[in-house]
Structure to design on (326 residues):
């Protein structure tokens, strides 16, 4: 029996400037660029083994065999890898996360970044970081940003080969910390793949996209010069703009829960009192509270005192997707 196996680890990322809406839905070419950083303590570890005897792909997530839509998405993705490699062989995919999936922590980002690296390596493709980022994007747009290290910008591009992410600063460049306040562990009802398709039904999407270059420029500069205040204002504006688009889409996407709103209001109060802290939310009710290492314990304690928060994850800026040896 011929077996080709590789394992890889990738971190999820939190977008400071968000991706919402595609120019090309099938290729996941986004309407706007985005900036994120990887989350070091959270990860997906994925082992891919191509086995000549298999008659279809099989998928295990956190030890449980997964079928249905989850498997379909991985099979479609592996078809792209097989096409690039010019082989037919099916694979066993074993994926583990150390954080809950489907609640607004971008599990699809780390999942498809780890899968891209493990699958392409196992099948014998020797892809550059740019090519890996393009490949990961096909599984989940934000996965393109979990390939490079540290602070990352995804250039939207216009076609498959020029829509990819690069590192704009290494993880050690700035000691930011993301405290992820988990508001619910329930699986979200509308995922981001379906959400992107609704973006254009909002009359606010055009204004959001037209203003993106300005927000990207300010956040890129703020990262470069460690300017927390400038970053904070743009990060909150960007999150609010994306959620305004969501809330004004047809059908309406409303991810905010009461606790999410209480956290956002408190974060603004804390910042007004002089603490470097800001919030951002993805396609779920959890709130990412971003601060610096010096203030992370203080913010953790403040969040821990609030009602309605189920769990808090703490992550500093993380490294790139990488192969592991077992
Ligand atoms: O990569 P997707 O399709 O899961 O989309 C991610 C969308 C947001 O998390 C809401 C924003 C972002 O840029 O990460």
């Amino acid at each position: 029996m011929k077996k080709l196996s590789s394992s890889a680890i990738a971190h999820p990322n939190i977008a400071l400037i968000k991706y919402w809406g595609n120019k090309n839905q099938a290729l996941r070419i986004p309407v706007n660029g985005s900036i994120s950083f990887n989350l070091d303590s959270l990860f997906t570890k994925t082992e891919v083994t191509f086995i000549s005897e298999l008659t279809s792909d099989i998928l295990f997530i956190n030890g449980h065999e997964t079928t249905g839509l989850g498997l379909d998405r991985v099979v479609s993705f592996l078809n792209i890898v097989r096409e690039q490699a010019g082989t037919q062989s099916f694979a066993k995919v074993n994926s583990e996360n150390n954080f809950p999936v489907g609640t607004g922590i971008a599990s699809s980002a780390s999942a498809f970044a780890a899968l891209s690296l493990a699958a392409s390596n196992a099948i014998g493709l020797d892809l550059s970081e740019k090519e890996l980022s393009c490949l990961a994007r096909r599984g989940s747009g934000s996965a393109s940003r979990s390939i490079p290290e540290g602070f990352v910008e995804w250039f939207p591009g216009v076609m498959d080969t020029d829509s990819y992410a690069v590192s704009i600063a290494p993880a050690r460049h700035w000691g930011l910390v993301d405290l992820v306040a988990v508001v619910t562990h329930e699986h979200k009802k509308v995922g981001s793949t379906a959400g992107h398709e609704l973006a254009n039904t909002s009359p606010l999407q055009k204004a959001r996209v037209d203003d993106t270059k300005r927000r990207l420029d300010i956040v890129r500069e703020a990262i470069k010069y460690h300017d927390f205040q400038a970053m904070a204002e743009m990060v909150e504006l960007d999150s609010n703009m994306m959620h305004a688009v969501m809330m004004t889409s047809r059908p309406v996407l409303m991810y905010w829960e009461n606790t999410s709103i209480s956290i956002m209001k408190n974060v603004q109060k804390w910042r007004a009192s002089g603490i470097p802290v800001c919030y951002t939310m993805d396609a779920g009710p959890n709130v990412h509270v971003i601060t610096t290492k010096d203030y992370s314990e203080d913010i953790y304690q403040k969040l821990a005192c609030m009602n309605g928060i189920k769990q808090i994850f703490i992550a500093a800026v993380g490294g790139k997707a990488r192969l592991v040896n077992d």
Summary: The radius of gyration is 19 Å. Residues 3-172 form a domain with the Ribosomal Protein S5; domain 2 fold (CATH 3.30.230.10).
